[in-house]
Amino acid sequence: MRLEDFDNDEDKVIQDRLKRKTWNEIRTNDSWAIFKIMAEFVNGYESMGRIGPCVTIFGSARTKPEDAYYLLAEKIAYKISKAGYGVITGGGPGIMEAGNKGAHLGGGTSVGLNIELPFEQHFNPYIDSDKNLNFDYFFVRKVMFVKYSQGFVVMPGGFGTMDELFEAMTLIQTKKIARFPIILVGSSFWAGLIDWIKTVLVEKEATVSAEDLNLFKIVDTEDEVVDVLDKFYKKYDLTPNF
User: Which among 95, 210, 108, 71 is positioned nearest to 164, based on CA atoms?
Assistant: First the structure.
């Protein structure tokens, strides 16, 4: 089928990206993509290097301001900022907005790492004006989250939230990065996933070790989040950056 034979834009995009290309087309497109990727890494490193490591808050872009998890994320970010930690989010709406809002109200550092998406994503108004970064590539953005995070606070979310959570646990598990706190907020939300990890991955299939369950903590309140962060950094004689 030809491109014009498809009825909707999504089908046209799939057909265009998966169709066979000549070697010259592949080489030309890939070469230019390398420069764009390098530019995103350089800009990200330079910008985040000036800001310094913060605590990252993840969660759904779809969570509404009246939702209990939105309000909890705002409280968590507020307490985190008052404790001396900066806050990084994905820069968008929902839980990300709540995180930046809490940091802003707490007078703390509020960073947003935005991603260009066809829907859902737009930067929120609570990011510090000089700390709003934009990315085209998810993998570049993910490197920034991991490299410049003093901890992950993971609120209820969807595929993107799960992606970041398991990426961090994999990197720590395989010792590609040093360990840092991973805090899952909302025991009722995470209960099903954790039970599946324990009963299927650990006990039945033995695809992960029982010790890997120690890579994260599960909490329900803002005070517990700050307590986990503070205990971790006091153990290693480290302090927040702000």
Answer: 95
CATH number of the CATH domain containing 180 = 3.40.50.450
Domain membership of residue 227 (yes or no) is yes
Which regions in the chain score pLDDT beneath 70?
1-28, 118-121
Cβ-proximal residues to 79 (8 Å cutoff; 6+ apart), any chain: 102, 106, 222, 223, 225, 226
Kindly report, residue by residue over 183-240, the tens digit of the pLDDT: 999 999 999 999 999 999 999 999 999 999 999 999 999 999 999 999 999 998 888 8
Helix/strand/coil for 118: coil
Per the CB < 8 A criterion, the answer to whether 54 and 241 are in contact is yes
* Rounded Cα distance, 227 and 212, in Å: 21
Number of neighbouring beta carbons within 10 Å of residue 172? 18
Give the number of residues written for the chain.
Answer: 242
Alpha helix segments (H runs only) across 19-176: 23-51, 68-82, 95-105, 138-147, 159-173
Q: Which domain holds residue 185?
A: 21-235
